[in-house]
Each structure stands twice: as C-alpha cells, then as structure tokens.
C-alpha cells in the first residue's frame, strides 16, 4: 500500500508547504525523489552572490520524517 509523502520546500528561512503530496511505495523511494528533485531545483536556480540552503522537509500525514538538504554558494576572493 502506498503512503502519501509531502515535500515541503525550505529556501533559507522560508518554508513552502506541499499541500498535495505524492503517493510513493516507501520512505526510501521518498528520499530518492527528494534528492533528485532538490538537485534539479539547484541546477535550474543556482545562487549568484550568496550562500543558500535548499531543503525538502519530508513528512506524511502522521508527521515529519526527514530532511534532505543542499548548501550552495559562491565564495569570491
């Protein structure tokens, strides 16, 4: 039986709640989906002048499970 997973997006201090979610087979599949989606977002929207933390806070209807995060930045010399 599939479980509905929600992928809330954290961009720095802002949190954008996923109101729809997606049904997936298990938590491992949800972690893989979160990582692939996070890498895709980072590729499409790279930071220009500052460091940025992007993350998915993954949860089910029963509560939070885990966070997948990626820290990006450019350090100028």
Describe this structure in words.
With 77 residues, the protein is an alpha+beta fold. It has one domain (3-72). The chain is 23% helix and 44% strand. It is built from 1 helix and 5 strands. The chain has one helix spanning 27-44, and strands at residues 3-11, 14-16, 22-24, 52-60, 63-72. Strands 1, 2, 3, 4 and 5 form a 5-stranded antiparallel beta sheet that branches. Residues 4-71 form the DUF6894 domain. This is DUF6894 domain-containing protein. InterPro entries: DUF6894.
Low-confidence stretches: none
Instruction: Indicate the percent of residues in helices.
Output: 10-25%
The helix-strand sequence is EEEHEE
Shape: elongated
Q: Which descriptors apply to this entry?
A:
alpha+beta, 44% strand, 77 residues, 5 strands, elongated
Please provide a brief summary of the model.
The chain has 77 residues and is of the alpha+beta class.
Question: What's the helix and strand layout?
Answer:
Layout: E1 3-11, E2 14-16, E3 22-24, H1 27-44, E4 52-60, E5 63-72
Antiparallel strand pairs: 1-2, 1-3, 1-4, 4-5
């Amino acid at each position: 039986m599939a479980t509905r997973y929600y992928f809330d997006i954290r961009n720095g201090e802002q949190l954008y709640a996923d109101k729809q979610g997606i049904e997936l087979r298990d938590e491992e599949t949800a972690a893989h989906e979160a990582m692939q989606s996070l890498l895709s977002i980072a590729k499409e929207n790279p930071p220009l002048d500052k460091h940025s933390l992007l993350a998915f806070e993954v949860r089910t209807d029963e509560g939070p499970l885990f966070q997948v995060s990626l820290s990006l930045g450019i350090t100028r010399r």
